[in-house]
Amino acid sequence: MHLKRWITAIVAVPVLATLIYKGPPVGFACLIAVIAVLAISEYFFIVSDGDKIRILKPIPLIGTAAGLGMIAAALHAFFEAMILLMFSGFLLGALFSMPVYRSVPNIMETVTRQAQGLVYVFLPLAMLVLIRARPDGVTWIFFIVIIVFIGDAGAFYAGTYLGKHKLAPAISPSKSVEGSLGGLTANILGAIVFKTLLLPGLSTAFTVVFAVALGIAGQIGDLFESELKRRAGIKDSGDILPGHGGMLDRIDALLFAVPVAYGFKLFIF
Question: What dihedral do alpha carbons 35, 37, 40, 44 form, nearest 10°?
Answer without folding.
Answer: -140
